[in-house]
């Protein structure tokens, strides 16, 4: 947990005072997404024992996103919010930071077994939503058209998704040879510090007039109501143990950095999206460990 905090703070300090090279954040994110994360997926996924309860990890992510879409679609219309504001809240409060923050937090709180399950929730849940329903929401609320071909291409060609498929195949075949495991492990270990350093560099805390009410409602859903609903779903369907804990904790993660970037690209109230992102990261560093303690009792 100390490393998580240090990396976040160091990233924020470097961005503000050290004059980092232009494009540094993009370069770090490229390494994390295209090299470190696939290596980590290739290392851990073959060790996951696939059982019927794993559906809950994916369902919890869809419940979080679908609930945000329903809630802010109805609430935003009644409060007279613009379509851009509604779309921004659906994206940043429906999609959690289940990768960059979820992986290191769950590794710290639940060990490597929890991290392996976190990858399943992120890759088969959050990423699939971002690359499919996320693109649809961004397009609808920005007045654009989502191409099914573009959605399918983004999913199939995403390096961590390819690694997920290869890792699952390797797991069915008995796992990787020890020599390959020795390669994947140190490369994958670079993901946590670099991902959090990158999040720290992108950290922004600002809010314009009329944004704090929307931000508060959005974070109330993302950090409290959504994980409680996921917990209720898990208990009602007989899910327990580590699978239940990881699903609920991933639902409770801070808003996703990539969702804020997507909102910015589509012109969906980027100032609000970045405010929700920054405040959510800060609050989740307290609420996620507290939720973990509660689940452990």
Write a structural description.
This protein has helices spanning 2-17, 24-44, 55-79, 83-94, 102-142, 148-156, 159-172, 178-188, 191-201, 211-236, 241-251, 257-265, 270-296. The model has no long low-confidence stretch (mean pLDDT 86). The chain has 297 residues and is mostly helical. The chain contains 13 helices and no strands. The protein starts with a helix and ends with a helix. Helix 3 (55-79) packs parallel to helix 11 and helix 5 runs antiparallel to helix 6.
Defining key terms:
297 residues, mainly alpha, 13 helices
Short description:
By secondary structure, the protein is mainly alpha-helical. Helices cover 78% and strands 0% of the residues. Helix 2 (24-44) packs antiparallel against helix 8 (178-188), helix 3 (55-79) runs antiparallel to helix 4 (83-94) and helix 3 packs parallel to helix 11 (241-251).
Q: Count up the helices.
A: 13
Proportion of residues in helical segments = over 70%
Largest sheet: none
- The average pLDDT value, as a whole number, equals 86
- Span between N and C termini? 20 Å
Low-confidence sequence ranges: none
Number of E strands: 0
Overall SS class: mainly alpha
